[in-house]
Amino acid sequence: MFSKLSIAVASVLITLAAAIPNSPPPPVTPPSSPQCCNSVVSSTSTAASAVAALLGLDLTGLNVPVGLSCSPITVVGNNCGSTTVTCDAPDKEWGGLIAINCIPITA
């Protein structure tokens, strides 16, 4: 059952990626936004490419850590429960789906 679901999801993502025109890669700027991300993967990973394609981003040529499903940390002592990182994460453009150039925050 799980394999059929993953194939269906992959098919939908590929269809959406083909339908959305790609833009140039986003600029990699110094990370300045504390984020709580569900996961952090390489920008060359399939997961990062799929999310980027949904947003019309082209990550070709980038090799930086990318946060997926991120939300800004706005309160000191925030209990993230996931991966706490500092990223370049323009919420207005990407709606928390992806953050670029994520560096882990260590206490």
UniProtKB/TrEMBL annotation:
InterPro entries: Class_I_Hydrophobin. Keywords: Cell wall, Disulfide bond, Secreted, Signal. Residues 1-19 form the signal peptide. It is found in: Secreted, Cell wall. It comes from the Eukaryota. GO terms for cellular component: fungal-type cell wall. One of its GO terms (molecular function) is structural constituent of cell wall. Belongs to the fungal hydrophobin family. Self-assembles to form functional amyloid fibrils called rodlets. Self-assembly into fibrillar rodlets occurs spontaneously at hydrophobic:hydrophilic interfaces and the rodlets further associate laterally to form amphipathic monolayers. This is Hydrophobin. The lineage of its organism: Eukaryota, Fungi, Dikarya, Basidiomycota, Agaricomycotina.
